[in-house]
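Before any further analysis, backbone shapes were mapped to integers, which produced the following:

***
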Amino acid sequence: MSSFSNISRYLHSAIPDYLQRPTARLQPIQSGEGTPSVDLEALAEVVSPVAEVLPVISIKSPEHWSKVVKNLEDDIDAIIPVSIPCYPTEIWNSHPQPLVERGLPFIFWPLIKIDEPDFWRWSARDMLQAIGVDVHLVKNNQEGLTLLRALGMKRFLGNSKLVVFGTQNFPWNAHAAGHLVTDNLGTKIIVKPLSAYRDLYHQFSDEQVQKVWSERCARYENLSCNNNELQTAVRTYLSIKIILEQEKALGFGVNCFGDLIPGGARDVPCLAQLLLREDGYIAACDGDYLAMMSMVLTSYFLDKPCMMSNMYPVQYVGALSEHFGDPLSPDESQFSRSQWENIARLAHCGFVGIVSPEMTPDNKTCLKDWGGTYEIQRDGRGCGCDGDLASGEKITVIELKFDGKTLLIADAETIETTRHKNMPHNEATGLLKFRNLPGFIDNISREHTVIVYGEHVRDYEILAEVLGLQVKIF
């Protein structure tokens, strides 16, 4: 596994509680009095990074069992059944109805030392699932830890918010469809005008702005962003942060191309995205709350950095030519046309996208004047962000669909970051190779995709199972 597959999110300082996935709380229940067959101390040690194991409750009678299960506290995320050495005649087999009524996940943990599933639980799992209990027969300790992180995520999302700024005129219209995310995952989508943060710019003096930038600039290299534009970018960061703190929101997005840019402004939030990620938030372009949710499902679940950008399948040479003035075709000496159906480019606002420094080969993101597009030309204003992706890396690509119920997961890899000469509106793109791009396209939600380094298909499968999402894998 490469070093990029192992990277964690960079955090500038300690983050507030509302930006931290909660520790899962597990209640062991022993089927009777006696010596348990599971070493609960060993279990507590294994799960300590992501969960807390509460003191075991030993069941004395069916009446006691029913009372215990029905009266477990609301912050309990799952029950861990524990046997005493005997045949599988446990209380949950003879009296399963309390589990049905309580609705808590029921987790048969793997054999800890051997690290394999306890196959004696096959029949109990199937019976309990058949009558409506959410049962997990965990394959190994690692998948168990992933499951516990997912349970923490479920509680985390239930009290979460995201903020989108700007007019809702793209298909990712939070007024029209944001409630579907709330209904299915719990996250509330709050819509505010651009003026909500712009009206706060005046609160920050030049000296305050300079002090903040001097504390944060080490991870960035300024190549062509003039000082006034840089100061505006830092003010944008500070102003949006105030609103996120007030709302206790997980992140933000700004509708640049539907509101900010057409209005003639260039106070783009590219640098604000990067600095707020360093503060523990997530941030995506164009106010796409579904891309924002996909980033939430990545960074807070995997504890890894991610980025989003427009994905362009290279086989669509007509659409690419119209958008960029060039088809951006791969080098045919390296990739024959027969391979193009699984190759795509990433690009947004003149660059690959908003790539956090820890995701770049040199651990730095360059600041340049905002890149513009073929339709809206670059004019030297604004502060854009130019970062390369590491080449030859396994990545996982995801999209949460508008229904808030379907998660698309694609297996892919980075090929290169391509530099395009004499294209000021498109200096760089990322070149990706997918395992099954045609299948992904047939089900695609939007051009906005979220990528994370590493192979995480199974991780997302487990998360989706806990959150009740339908998964489609490509």
